[in-house]
Amino acid sequence: MRRRLDLLGLLPFLAYVLVFLGVPAVAVAVGAFQTDTGNWTLANLTAAVGDPYLNAFVVSIETSALTAVIGAVVGLAIAFAVSASPAGGVLRQVVSTASGVLAYFAGVPLAFAFIATVGSQGIVPKWLVSLGVDMSGFSLFGFLGITLVYVYFQVPLMVLVIFPALEGLRPQWQEAAANLGATRWQYWRTVGGPLLLPPFLGALMLLFANAFAAYATAAALTNGVIPLVPIQIASLMSGNVAVGQENLGNALGLGMILIVGLALAGYALMQRRTARWLR
């Protein structure tokens, strides 16, 4: 009886997932194989894996992978330093709260904040130029700028995701290793490192999916100059590239769904492995 009640409580969530995720995903998948007149075709998929859209996938994957690696490494270092502080302390509360806010601060407000801060006429470049620093080679509206902005919200997301795994490492394990004569390096190489590897890889995949699917910030910052897949899809759907190319946009969207789905599946797999020792 209780199990039926639990399932009944899941119905609103399942309905939400079906309406806002399931139905749009099916519509995108069907549209990717149709012409504008409703006939079945593979032309959209063929065009999606050719230039210039193939280059958009390459750039998006490179950007997502780079920012995911940087965000994962920096976020792990911050979370590791914070985990050494007393539980319930001010430092933990401040970092956790700040990470929760910064991880979801994106879109047009984030783009405006970076333009005002590190744009060509921003506060930081003007200050550095006054100190004699040459800023002519830096542009916020190129690949380096997008990478910088993405890392801004990737790092706090990594802190939020990896922190429970760090807290799951029992102090008794390190004490037991020390009692057996193991050094700190040996403990991390044989115990702590292998235990943290699955959650770290899972977080890396989550960060990759997060960056790959990001749209509003890049669109507001670059105005479509950098050929990212979400920006290409928006251009096709709005008719800015060619009228009647919505199903080509669906084909690109299907490619995004597959790539992000694989990344999230890897994240879920790593989370299952992590749950065994976090209980």
From TrEMBL:
One of its GO terms (biological process) is transmembrane transport. The chain crosses the membrane at residues 53-82, 94-118, 138-163, 195-218, 251-270. It is found in: Cell membrane. PROSITE patterns: ABC_TM1 (PS50928). Residues 57-269 form the ABC transmembrane type-1 domain. Keywords: Cell membrane, Membrane, Transmembrane, Transmembrane helix, Transport. It is a multi-pass membrane protein. Its main location: membrane. GO terms for cellular component: plasma membrane. InterPro entries: MetI-like (IPR000515), MetI-like_sf (IPR035906). Belongs to the binding-protein-dependent transport system permease family. CysTW subfamily. This is Binding-protein-dependent transporters inner membrane component. It comes from Kutzneria albida DSM 43870.
